[in-house]
Amino acid sequence: MKVPFKKLNERAHTPTYGSPYSAGADLYAVTEGELVVPAGETVFVHTGIAIELPAGTVGLVYARSGLSCKKDLAPANKVGVIDCDYRGEIMVALHNHGKEARTVADGERIAQLVVAPCYTVQFEQAEELSQTVRGEGGFGSTGRN
Questions:
Q1: DSSP state letters, 22-68
Q2: Distance from C-alpha of 74 to C-alpha of 89, rounded to nearest angstrom
Q3: 37: nearest Cα among 66, 84, 87, 75
Q4: Predicted model pTM
């Protein structure tokens, strides 16, 4: 599947996969020098790109494990959602979960983008729902003896 993208900044990077079987493509920061993310705060980081996702797909922006584990930086909204009709710049709201200020350098990999199928459904009210073994159990209820 080909996904057209547009560079909105000459320093923007094409999203890249780290290996042939990577689920997410790395997104890169476009900053003027180092961008400081104070402890406990969120900063919007530019990627300098816009994309044209195919109809029936969604772009999901996830944390990069290395950045979140080593620098305490991860998307503030946990998972960013890019609708297929959005044509603006992809921005990543990076939150610093640590106790020290952290920096993001121009060209640094800041998040990963997964393109996935997405259904638009019609919600239909019902008096009853089908029965399952799980039933109404939630919040850690599966796997209990």
A1: -SSEEEE---SSPEEE-TT-EEEEE--EEE-PPTTEEEEEE--HHHH
A2: 19
A3: 75
A4: 0.90
Nearest to 59, CA basis, from 116, 112, 120, 121: 116
Give SS3 for 137.
Answer: coil
Burial (CB count within 10 angstroms: exposed 0-12, middle 13-18, buried 19+), residue 97: middle
Q: Are 54 and 1 in contact (CB under 8 A)?
A: yes
How far is 132 from 55, CA to CA, in rounded Å?
33
Whether 43 and 35 have beta carbons less than 8 Å apart is answered as yes
Task: Provide the residue-wise pLDDT of the chain in tens; the chain has 145 residues.
Answer: 999 999 999 999 999 999 999 999 999 999 999 999 999 999 999 999 999 999 999 999 999 999 999 999 999 999 999 999 999 999 999 999 999 999 999 999 999 999 999 999 999 999 999 998 888 877 766 665 5
Collect all residues with Cβ–Cβ distance below 8 Å to 26 and sequence separation of at least 6. Answer: 15, 16, 17, 18, 64, 109, 111, 112, 113
119 touches 55 (CB < 8 A) = no
